[in-house]
Structure formats: structure tokens, C-alpha cells
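Anyone able to model this chain together with manganese (II) ion?
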Amino acid sequence: MAFFDLETPENNQTDNLVWLGHLSPDTDTISSAIAAAELFGGEARRAGELNKETAYVLDYCGLEAPAMISQQDGQKVGLVDFNQKTQLHKYVCNDDIVAIIDHHAIQDQPITFNKAISMDIRPWGSAATILADRFEKMGKTMSSTTACVLLGGILSDTLIFESPTTCPQDKVYAEKLAKIAGIDDIVAFGTAMLEAKSDLADVDTYSILKLDFKHYVINDKRVGFGVAETLLPEQLIERQASFLTEMKVEKAKQGLDYIFFAIVDTKGKQSHLVLFSQAEQDLASAAYGETAASQWMLLPGAISRKSQLMPAIQATLSAPPQSAVKPALAIV
Ligand SMILES: [Mn+2]
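re: yes, here you go
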């Protein structure tokens, strides 16, 4: 079998090598795949349609979207920005995977391997930050276009450093990347990205539900959790009835035990959670310690699925029965 090691890139075989992020790709996933291909060789791929923010970033940076992942014999796949089976494109089998670069917890359904592979998982704000650090540590200069998309990846995942997932390295590397990319105003770039993402008036409700949707399996319960980060929450709040209709379809189609959708108000720093049925209301009440009203729950201060919304669900579903007394979400 082919040999691949993130630590000794000069020895790697890079024929048929592709870099791939998670389903419902976001800016961090796409930019990390692009950067990994530049750093280690091979080509970037995507596992789905681009959201408006990512399309904006690629256009701004002067890059084409990576090609869709295809089914290839003997392809080698480096994964970026995820490690869960539920987020892997069906065209990739476990034996194809040669490396993982990620910043997510290794939780209930990680991809498993029969042999050791090269991994780099750090508790940083974005996979893009890890890629930027690898370029620097390996003494390689990146192109200005790659610096530009990596900056987009950091700003997207950290919500311009406002998300509780942000770490000091994210800011340090954002500034270095901005210099390489020739971007003077980091916050203005990040704000333009968020505005592009918030422009959902012409997008149908089902597409919005699935724009940034992740699956989890916790204690044998299947959970689907979609989020839409927006500067214009009212535009989505008024579509509640339509979201509930689409959630019904999706919950049945995916065989989920629970389905959640959060309208994340990135300006007001709060989330509006759409609660499909009594099951979701009960779980959300236990997890977040808030009361549901008319299939809604307002979660002040909660803007990150990764570090706030999902960990609370995770803790509640993992807890032994009858012991869920105090809410698992600590609002920061
Ligand atoms: Mn990410």
C-alpha cells in the first residue's frame, strides 16, 4: 500500500491523491482542501454544492471551485475538517483514506482504520489555521490565493473571532495570511463573507435546512442538526412553518430520532432553535435549560454548534436516564 505521512512529505506518493472535506461543505472545509493540495501535492475535491459564502470567498480570492469527488479506483484521500463517518462522502471507502487534518472532537462515529494513518487533530478554531501552521513549520511559502482562502476559512469558522471556539493561533495566523494575500482589512473581508452567506431570500427552505447540516449518532440515537449563520435572522424566522414542513420530510428520509435547526443570529449573538416535535422540545429543554414556546427556543449567547449547541445535546443523550438534572449548556 502507498505510504503517506504528514511529517515526511518528501517521501509521499502523491499520484491519485485528493483532499476532501465534509458533506455540506463550508469555507473552512474547501479552503483546507485547497491548501492541503498545495502543501502536500494532489488535488482538492468537494463533497457537495458550495454555499454562498464559500462561493463569494473563492471568487474574491480568484480561485475556481474544486471538482466534485468522484469514484476512482486506487484513489488516496486525505480528509480535512472532519473525522466522523456520517460526514464522509459515499464515494470514499475507509481503505482509501491516508491522512486526517482536523479540529473536531473524536466522538461517537469516528472513521476507523485497520492500520495507523497520519493524523493531525488540534483544538483550534479552524482546520485552515492548522494548515497555515503546517506551511510555516515546513518552511513552505504559499500562494497569495491560498492565503486568501485560508483566511476566509478562519474567519468563517470563528465568526470573525467571535465564536467561543476561537483560539489565539487563529488571530495570529489570520494576520499572517492577510499579509500574504494583500488584504488590509480582515474584519471588512469577514463581514462581506457573512453578508454573502446571509443572502438567502432566493434560496428555497429545504436547501437552507441542508446548507450546513450534520449527522451524529449518540448512544444509538440519530441526530440531525442544521444551522444557518445569518445577519438577517428575521428573513428565516418568518419561514418557521416552511422549515417545520421540510424538517418532517428530512427526519423521515434520514430515519432520524431528532432533528434540529438553529437560525444563528451572528450579530445579536443568539440562536433561534426550531423544534420539530415534542421529542425535540423535551431534549432541547433538558440540554439547554430553556423553555420551548410554539416550537421555538431562544438561546441567548449560543452561536456555535461545535462548542455549545451539540455538546449540550451530546451530554444529555449520553447521561444515564433520570440523572439529567442540570442543563448541559454553559452559555459563555
Ligand atoms: Mn472547520
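The longest helix spans residues 240-254.
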